[in-house]
Amino acid sequence: MMVVEKARKYLEKNPYLIVILYCAIASTIVWWIGLARLAPLLKLYNTPRLDISFLRSEGAPGLERIVASFIVLAGSYGLAYYWAGKAHGKLAWAVIIMGGLLQAGVLLYMAPFTSTDIFDNISHGRILALYHANPFQTVAALFPHDPFTRFDGWPQAPSAYGPLWEDTAGLIARLAGNGIVQNVIAFKLLPGLLWTACAGVVGLILRKRSPSNALRGVLLLAWNPVALFEVWGNGHNDPAFLIFVLLAIWALLERRYTLTILSLTVGTLVKFMPAVLIPAAGLIALQQLPGWRVRLGYLLRTGLASLGLVVVAYAPFWRGLQTLSLNRRAHLFSNSLSSAIYFTLSKSIGAVRADHLIVPVAAALTVVFALWMAYRAMRSTAPDRFAVAAMLTFAFYLLGTVLFFWPWYTLWLVALIPLVRDRQLRTLAILFSFSAISRYFIVYPAFNWKPPLLQQPMLEIYQVAILFGIPWLYMVYALVARRLKPAPQPQPAVQTFRIRPREVERKTRVPE
Predict the structure, then answer these.
(1) 406: which of 166, 273, 294, 302 is 20 to 30 A away, CA to CA?
(2) Residues of the chain below pLDDT 50
(3) Is 209 helix (H, G, I), strand (E, B) or coil?
(4) Cα(386)–Cα(373) distance, rounded to whole angstroms?
């Protein structure tokens, strides 16, 4: 009773926490009614290659139910974020953390239906763990008797990830056994717990650098509806490399420069994107280190350690340069500006020539932009310069040069929101994450309409306009607003007076 009385008195002093608690309960109920019950894992687990078209069996209300659910979840998320800025104390932390885990727990029982990636990951893990084959060379189609092959969306494709991810997937597949439900839950739990760890690293950084924003920063990640849906609901593995990007930011702020590069290297061994951030982190470190002898030592020590990690990770899988997974999907065009250009050019110059033109140009533009961000980060003195460089590099890639885009890629930006002070960058990331999931509710039905309403390239242009239209328009607005923002007016100099000791003595002397 004493504990209940203390909690009641605490809530009376912190009414904001009650609002956050109600938001957590409401969001959990919406996740359960709007998605977990609509796509129950225990009912649909044996349906191969499940996608959003299963809603046709539910009729139009099924799609409307999901859309309405996301609208409510977005509102609850925004309300909780607003009031989290006023809450404080251990109980507030407990409500934020438990509220996020409660929502996540509900989504464990949702059948993945946005893609088949989780089953591809399971199959590659089984290829390594059960069949002792190389997932960078051996494909799932070679094991037609395996219970997971019929679920694969890419049965003819080898792994598109790095060796560290495949080692981890092999371990999870070995522990999960042959059960379909057990494997799905296990391959959801892994990225889900890593996303929770991402929120933990953000909280660790902010509690030291900006304590007043720590609670909101953790909520931004732990309660984000897009992250919960794509990670805990559909099992996408992007948190497996994002955790190392965030650890690199922490290490850089702590001036542990070798650990920064090693963390990005490990992230690259999961998925290649952290590699484009290494120049920014390296130049910041070189700018901070004193003297060329120390800098050369740092380059030698860090370079050898990173190379050693790459060699050790790839050694069990190495079969020549074809082992590198970077080019596995380098010629896949879908859901992106590059794909719209590709389908447009294919009409005039042919698919092969369009491919050979777009792929190297997109790669070169990405590298040049990453180097430019690295140079700007080196010249800056802002404490969030590396986080800003990372977010801008990812945003340029996703909004401009990526060959194929999927909505869960926006988590690369969401993970960095709490660590970036620029409000316009944070707003861009949130808008992009919510506009991207419109692919499931607006774009996908148009693609699968019978007969098709649009043909390529207009179909791809329509898709790109829906997915990227809002963030592109916001970027234009942000750039114009910055241009029109009046320059700060110089403040008049404040004249200071220096009082001499004799004058002090004269003023403080007590009259006789």
Answers:
(1) 166
(2) 58-60, 493-512
(3) helix
(4) 9
